[in-house]
Amino acid sequence: MSIVATRRALLGLAGAASLSAAMAGAVRAEGGSSTASAGPGFANGTPVSIGAAALRVLRRDTMTAFYRDAIGLSLLAEADGRSVLGVDGIPLLTLIDAPDASFEPPTQAGLFHIAFLMPERRDLAQWLVHAAYTRVPLSGFADHNVSEAVYLDDPEGNGLEIYADRPADRWEWKDGVVTMGTHQLDMDAILDLTTTERDTYRGAPAGLRIGHIHLRVGDIPAGRGFYERALGLASTRGDRRDAAFLSSGGYHHHVALNVWNSAGAGRRDPRSTGLDWFSLRVREAAIVEAQSARLAAGGLAVTPVENGVEALDPWGTRVRLLSGAA
Questions:
Q1: All structural domains of the chain with their residue ranges
Q2: Alpha carbon distances (Å) from 250 to 105, 237, 270, 288
Q3: Is 50 exceeded by the pLDDT of residue 36?
Q4: pLDDT digit string, tens, across residues 77-132
Q5: Architecture of domain 7-276
Q6: Where are the beta strands (DSSP E) in the chain?
Q7: What is the tens place of the pLDDT at every residue in 284-326?
Q8: Using CA of residue 128, residue 129, residue 133, residue 134, what is the dihedral sign?
Q9: CB of 272 within 8 A of CB of 46?
Q10: What is the DSSP code string of 55-110?
Q11: 207 touches 42 (CB < 8 A)
């Protein structure tokens, strides 16, 4: 009997000889090995959470197949140069035809990664076995104290994280700062939760959602001015100069910003590939109204969209504030 979904096979997909080598990919994806912890809250039950995201893509068919086959999303709709994918009828990702676009350089502002949150650790285990059997290329693994994460890129280089949160009562907070480190992932303990003798992943589980969005920006103070002071998200990792981690309702982070490769970056080119927009799902209409007022008071343009409003961050990324729970 051939068992391909082993730690060795998964490390091979990440191009690494050991877990410590694979962790280097996660360090690059999360920016260092600081040690900090988390606290109360759940990603999609907070007053504000991530709703969905949209990518401008060169090859929509190829990208649709990847998110369907590698991640397990379902194709919900396809029309007018767009593919909408999601879980249980809930849209999570829109792929938009941009056949003449240029690739967005990694030194520019834009998407660092979209993080898909598995409902349970066992779901992450089953997906890892699926990745091994279907030879999905991986780039890193890490234990972040509050969560366990796997990193990879889609076929057009957009960063992805597939992760499972630890129970919120095991997160650690001190003076409003959550402990989030980058440590070696106990892959054997995760794989012990499922069989490795066959692929049992039958598509994304019903509770899969986007847990957080991580962005490249040109300047952390300007980014915090928009996402923290205008949109009302709260910092969970202090006043770092190279990055910011922001959330609603005590989650470890819904939005992250970094300048690791993009310090000083200016406005994004709307003709390039990459993130077109992402949405923040706001549970109460009054919060949308308050956020809209703060944006307008800061001199930022607010455009009405279905169920909410849209604004541009300082680098031209479109952020939608939508009323209602997903």
A1: 7-276
A2: 33, 12, 33, 19
A3: no
A4: 999 999 999 999 999 999 999 999 999 999 999 999 999 999 999 999 999 999 99
A5: Roll (3.10)
A6: 48-57, 74-79, 82-87, 90-97, 110-118, 140-143, 147-153, 159-165, 173-174, 177-178, 209-216, 234-235, 243-247, 255-258, 274-282, 303-305, 308-312, 318-323
A7: 888 888 888 889 888 888 999 999 999 999 999 999 999 986 5
A8: negative
A9: no
A10: EEES-HHHHHHHIIIII--EEEEEETTEEEEEETTEEEEEEEE-TTPBPPPTTSSE
A11: no
In single-letter form, the type of residue at position 256 comes to A
Q: What is the pLDDT of residue 37?
A: 28
| Residue located via tokens 């998200």 | 233
- Which two structure tokens, joined as six digits, stand for 190? 């995760």
CA nearest to 15, candidates 139, 130, 153, 136: 139
Say which residue the tokens 């961050």 belong to: 313
> Residue 174: what residue type?
K
Angstrom distance (rounded) from CA 142 to CA 289: 38
Q: How much is the CA Rg of the chain, to the nearest whole Å?
A: 19
Contact 165, 146 (CB under 8 A): yes
